[in-house]
Amino acid sequence: MAAGKELNPTEYIGHHLTHDAQPLFGEGGFWTLNVDSLSVSILLGFIGLGFLWWIVRGATSGVPNRRQAFVELLFGFVDDQAKGIFKHGDRSKFVAPAALTVFVWVLLMNAMDFLPVDIIAMGTQHVSEHGFRIVPTADVNTTFALALSVWVLMIVFSIQAKGLGGWLHELFFSPFGKWLLPANFLFNLIEYVSKPLSHSLRLYGNMYAGELIFLLLWMLAAAGIGWAGLAFLLGWGWAIFHILIVVLQAYIFMMLTIVYFAMAYEHH
């Protein structure tokens, strides 16, 4: 096992689902950082940016090579999605590049779920007692941070489009008019709060469940030689199906990002 000793199933799963949490002040609490999620997220962010920079650096105006054609196909796909949703200005200035960045980054973080947890834990035991949890999007703190970043940008864009007065007027006077200010505010508050909640929890729930299923399959493989073959087949089947989940969740997160940016410009 990753901890260097035999663990029962509960201890094994708990061991691999424990973060390398480091408090910033005192006992931590709210000011506790999951170092594994942060470090892996930052590393994958640089890898994603480095990959795109590498493609751009080698881009030609003639016949594109295979890697350039792949990225152009990816960017064209993202741009088509943005064009179908965002109709409030030049999407190429920010919306489409932001959507591409979100898609690539979330896809890379989701794809970490395919790495064997025990092998990774063995390589990181000298850093943390539990090793690193290497799927940042299986950490609700990561998905909330991403969703809140989109949420803040949505509010900024809404104020830019409508002005601070127009945004506040819409917040307190829509949709029921001036005689129901408390109801208007409560209605809009629920709408604003629900966006980052649904945006983050959908991604977190799917990736956390996928991580848990992989751990259960590894436990089945360790139950004995008779179970190893079944676990191998189930593991391959789940991995193939999980490819769809990994890509689909990155796509959904990207699409909701575009939708929320577009909603910021809409008037009620």
What does this molecule look like?
There is one protein chain. The protein is globular and about 70 Å long. Strands 1-2 form a two-stranded antiparallel ribbon. The protein has one domain. The chain has helices at residues 9-16, 35-57, 66-85, 95-111, 117-124, 140-173, 181-221, 225-263; strands at 21-23, 32-34. The protein contains eight helices and two strands. A hairpin with an 8-residue loop joins strand 1 and strand 2 (32-34). With 268 residues, it is mainly α.
Topology summary:
Layout: H1 9-16, E1 21-23, E2 32-34, H2 35-57, H3 66-85, H4 95-111, H5 117-124, H6 140-173, H7 181-221, H8 225-263
Placed side by side, the strands forming the largest sheet appear as 1-2
Class derived from helix and strand content: mainly alpha
SSE arrangement, N to C: HEEHHHHHHH
User: Per the principal axes of the C-alpha atoms, what is the gross shape?
Assistant: globular
Number of strands: 2
Distance between the termini: 57 Å
Query: Rg from C-alpha positions?
Result: 22 Å
* Amount of beta strand: under 5%
Number of domains: 1
Summed up, the helix count is 8
Largest sheet, strands/sense/barrel: 2 strands, antiparallel
- What is the mean pLDDT? 82
Helix residue percentage: over 70%
Low-confidence stretches: none
